[in-house]
Amino acid sequence: MADPDTSAASGLGLPPRAAAGNRSLRIVIVGMAVIVAMLPFVASTYVLSLLVLAGIYAVLVIGLELFMGQTGQVSFGHNAFAVLGGYATAILTTTHNWPPLAALAFSIVISVIAALIIGARTLQLRGHYLAMATLALGMIAYTLTVQLTSLTNGFAGITGIAPLGIGPLELTSDLQYYYVVWTIAALGIWSSFRIKDSRVGRALGAIAGNEEAASALGINAARLKLTAFVISAAYAAVAGSLMAHFVGFLSPEVFGLDLVTLLFAMLFVGGIGTIYGPVVGAVLIALLPAILGPLAEYRQLAYGVILLAVIMFAPSGAFRQIVGLAERLFDGSSRGVKRG
Q1: pLDDT in tens, 103-136
Q2: Per-residue pLDDT averaged across 235-258, rounded?
Q3: Contact indicator for 268, 66 with CB cutoff of 8 Å
Q4: HSE of 28 in the Cβ direction (CA atoms, 13 Å)?
Q5: Cα dihedral sign for 176, 178, 183, 188?
Q6: CB atoms within 10 A of CB 164
Q7: Handedness of CA 168, 169, 175, 180 (dihedral sign)
Q8: Between the CA of residue 135 and those of 58, 79, 113, 126, 130, what are the distances in Å?
Q9: Strands 169-170 and 165-166: what pairing?
Q10: What is the DSSP string of 220-260?
Q11: Confidence of residue 335 (pLDDT cuts 50, 70, 90)
Q12: Which of 128, 176, 193, 309 is the most interior residue, by most CB within 10 Å?
């Protein structure tokens, strides 16, 4: 999967060292795409299902990275928008017999509207106050899924959610879900790059660097932060809807504080500030139950230990480490990647 930035940079005649770094980045990205395409042929049924979940989580963390990594804000509450997406899909397809794509579209719309209403006030806060407000948002969403039993069935959950499909064409196997989910993840990556390379993306980068300075230059920081928040909520809604269709069952535990921990582990293990990093983190963390084997019941402990180790010893994340290794192998350079 080509990075449009690097292609454009090469075309502009970057210095040889920068061009070499871009070549290594392209090698890593193409290698990742090949691995994603070939994994189903060597993975067991169990690992394949984990890889489908990894793709769904990847969609969610790509959106979260847009808000946190590209804009420099903090959110512990994006599980709330996954809740909206998942439960809207589950209720509409099981109770009202909506087709999956119509339910998906409604899930995105309702999440975007909720993000607009919530973000308009919440994003006036900064730092720890914003973090606590978004944490409360996620906890409220979780509590509602438990308490609104007439809609959600509480902890009993919603069963019999139809598979994703169009008309008579339905996804009936993990292999089909794998390619569809990862195609959606690839579209999410492409969209994120398009946003990052646009005037909006450059303005978001300026806000992340220094919000006061960006405002002094005429950038409407409040409006752009809300834009990033709404877009990331749409990503979360898509992920929630995919989760409902793939699992076929939805309960509050799916979207609780464990999910918040999981998303932050994926974001920081892969590398916040890069678009590909969270995808790498999603795969690594999602495969952890298979890697831990009989110790999988301690995976929450493992998430914490891994997150702590990455922050202490490799704060740039796994993706930058992989690209740095590729540079040393193919270019003989020790310069770390700055983009991607």
Answers
A1: 999 999 999 999 999 999 899 888 889 999 999 9
A2: 93
A3: no
A4: 28
A5: positive
A6: 24
A7: negative
A8: 21, 9, 19, 13, 8
A9: antiparallel
A10: -HHHHHHHHHHHHHHHHHHHHHHHHHHHSEE-GGGGSHHHH
A11: low
A12: 193
pTM score, two decimals?
Answer: 0.87
Q: What is the dihedral of CA 101, 250, 237, 107, to 10 degrees?
A: 50
> How high is the pLDDT of residue 315?
85
Helices vs. strands in the chain: H and E counts, helices first: 16, 4
Q: In residues, how long is the chain?
A: 340
**SS3 call for 333:** coil
- Cα(176)–Cα(181) distance, integer angstroms: 9
Backbone angles phi, psi at 169, to 5 degrees: -85, 110
Cα–Cα distance measured from residue 52 to residue 40, given in angstroms and rounded to the nearest whole number:
10
Instruction: Indicate the range of 21-25, 133-137, 143-147, 325-329 predicted with least confidence.
Output: 21-25
Q: Is the pLDDT of residue 13 over 60?
A: no
Dist. CA 85–CA 106, nearest whole Å: 8
Instruction: Give the integer Cα–Cα distance in Å for 162 and 159.
Output: 9
Q: Tokens 């509450």 identify what position?
A: 77
Question: What is the per-residue pLDDT across 152-188, written as a single tens digit (0 to 9) for each?
Answer: 999 999 999 999 998 888 998 999 999 999 999 999 9
What CA–CA distance (Å, rounded) separates 272 from 268? 5
What letter does residue 43 receive in the DSSP assignment?
-
Three-state DSSP state, 336: coil
Cβ-count burial of 258 within 10 angstroms (0-12 exposed, 13-18 middle, 19+ buried)?
A: middle
Q: Which residue, among 65, 41, 39, 69, has the nearest Cα to 282 in the 3D structure? A: 65
Instruction: Determine contact, residues 276/316, Cβ cutoff 8 Å.
Output: no
Contact predicate 141/80, CB 8 Å: yes
